[in-house]
Every structure is written in structure tokens, then in C-alpha cells.
Design brief:
Elements lengths: L10 H53 L6 H31 L5 E4 H12 L7 E4 L6 E4 L1 H17 L7 E7 L4 E6 L7 H4 L10 H5 L8 H11 L3 E6 L5 E7 L5 H6 L2
Parallel strand pairs: 2-4
Antiparallel strand pairs: 1-3, 4-5, 5-7, 6-7
The chain binds adenosine-5'-diphosphate.
């Protein structure tokens, strides 16, 4: 028997193939460009503290002997900048781990998790922290460690970007479709035009730079990746009369106790 030859493609099919190929190529180029941008941003962020450290070491070397009074201040800068670099590197590692992480989501009680995180966080800050959560379990499919990290990062930001005594509230709630975890502060708020960008790597709202709040602009990029790994969504809105509310929506899971009570 004759081997069956492949049928020549119809012009429509060739067009479709060419279109698919172009789309793939564009997506690949896009990803490469984002990666290049990321590496260039990361290098830029690391270069600044290194320059400060080296500058201060040179200063001590040149003037330290004759003017020992410059030493403590320079050592202070060196300490501060090396700490900044350490945080930055830790954050970069978190990001690249989250990039590769494949997680098995488990049913867990979000109300208890939030209660634990708030109890551990409260002694670290002066600001009053409140928690509004049902006393019954609020079950979601998620990863305990990642949800801890998400809530802690949102609390860190609420703390950093609001006055030393203004309250922060955490809320766990459930409706028919989703479970939500939100963190509300009464701080500086986020201008509407920055809201879509704050989840990008290295993005910082200008005002926060001028307020000299420490940060690298990676916190929310990490949070957003962790939320995605938990198959959730994160949004931000204005709080009233001022400040922001970050809300994470997660997938509800059936409560195992209720299932066993009503088989
Ligand atoms: P970082 O805090 O290290 O700058 P993040 O990625 O956590 O980076 O946040 C990005 C930017 O979003 C911050 O620089 C800040 O301008 C803004 N931001 C985040 N959380 C808040 C908040 N609760 N209130 C006001 N601005 C915030």
C-alpha cells in the first residue's frame, strides 16, 4: 500500500498557523523584555547601597585618622545600607522561589490563621490592631505559610504608611462566592493612578519616597504572586475618611466538621 501523504494545508489554515506563531513570538519577546527590565531594576537597586557603602569606607580610609568624629556616622550609613541590601536580596529570593513554587492547597481555617497573625503582630507595633472575624471556622483552600506571609506583608505596609498611632483593622468575611481577608489602614492612601502599578516589581509611589519610608517596592509584587499561587485575587480601594483597604479574595473550602455532622 502507498504511504499516506500529508494533505497540503488550506490557505486559511496557513494563515491561522502564521497568526498563532506570531502570537507565540510576541508573548516570548514580551517575557524576555520583562525579565531584562527586572534584572536591570534589581541591579540598579543593589548598586545604590553598594556605592554608599564604598563611599563611606573610602571616607573613613582618607579622613578617619585625622578626623575620627566622621567614623560613627559613616559606620551608621554602612550598617543601614548593608541591611537594606540584605532585605532586598531576601525579597529577590522570595520572588524567584514564588516564581517556581508549585503548591498543594489544603483546606484551612482563615479566621484562626488571622487571629494568630494579629496576636503575634500586635506586640511589634504601637498602633491599635483590631480583628473582625466570625468565631466559626472560615474554611478556604490555601497554603498556611503563604497566607501568613501575605497577611504579615499587608500589615507591614499598613504600619509603614500610616501614622504611629492610627488604627489598623483586619477583617475575615464570607459570602456566597468567596472568602475575603482585608487589611484597612488610615494612612496616606494610594493615588488612583498608582493603584494598578503598586503590584509591579520595584514600583513605589513617589510620595512614599519623599516620606523616607524604607522599602524596595518588592513587597506587593511578592504578595501578588503568593495570592495567585493560592488561586486568589488581590485588590485595593480607598478607606474612608482616609487610607487604603487591601482585600484578598480566596476560594472557600467545605468545613470538614459540618460535612461529618451532616453526612
Ligand atoms: P515597599 O513598601 O517596599 O515600597 P511594596 O511593594 O510593599 O513596596 O509597596 C509598593 C508601594 O505601594 C509602596 O512604596 C507605597 O508607595 C505603596 N503602598 C503599599 N501599601 C500601602 C499602604 N498601606 N498605604 C499607602 N501606600 C502603600
Amino acid at each position: 500500500t502507498q504511504p499516506k501523504l500529508p494533505q497540503p494545508l488550506e490557505p486559511v489554515e496557513i494563515n491561522q498557523l502564521a497568526q498563532d506563531f506570531n502570537q507565540l513570538l510576541a508573548a516570548q519577546n514580551n517575557r524576555l523584555q520583562r525579565e531584562r527590565q527586572f534584572i536591570s531594576d534589581a541591579s540598579h537597586e543593589l548598586r545604590t547601597p553598594i556605592a554608599t557603602i564604598r563611599g563611606n569606607l573610602k571616607l573613613i580610609e582618607r579622613r578617619g585618622e585625622q578626623h575620627p568624629e566622621v567614623i560613627p556616622e559613616s559606620l551608621g550609613f554602612i550598617d543601614q545600607e548593608s541591611l537594606r541590601m540584605q532585605h532586598l536580596i531576601e525579597n529577590l529570593l522570595h520572588l524567584s522561589r514564588a516564581d517556581r513554587a508549585a503548591v498543594a492547597l489544603q483546606p484551612l481555617d482563615l479566621a484562626t490563621l488571622a487571629r494568630n497573625v494579629v496576636a503575634h503582630y500586635q506586640p511589634l507595633v504601637q498602633q491599635p490592631l483590631s480583628l473582625e472575624a466570625p468565631t466559626t471556622p472560615i474554611m478556604v483552600n490555601g497554603d498556611t505559610d503563604m497566607l501568613h506571609q501575605i497577611l504579615t506583608a499587608l500589615l507591614d505596609n499598613a504600619h509603614k504608611y500610616s501614622p504611629a498611632t492610627s488604627p489598623i483593622s483586619v477583617r475575615v468575611a464570607q459570602d456566597d462566592q468567596a472568602v475575603t481577608l482585608s487589611v484597612a489602614d488610615q494612612g496616606s492612601g494610594i493615588p488612583a493612578e498608582d493603584r494598578t502599578h503598586i503590584f509591579e516589581r520595584f514600583y513605589r509611589v513617589d510620595a512614599s519616597r519623599s516620606q523616607k519610608v524604607e522599602g524596595s517596592g518588592l513587597g506587593l509584587a511578592i504578595v501578588s504572586q503568593l495570592v495567585q499561587l493560592n488561586q486568589g485575587q488581590i485588590t485595593v480601594q480607598d478607606n474612608q475618611p482616609q487610607g487604603s483597604i487591601f482585600t484578598v479574595r480566596l476560594t472557600p473550602a467545605p468545613d470538614p466538621k459540618k460535612i461529618s455532622e451532616n453526612p
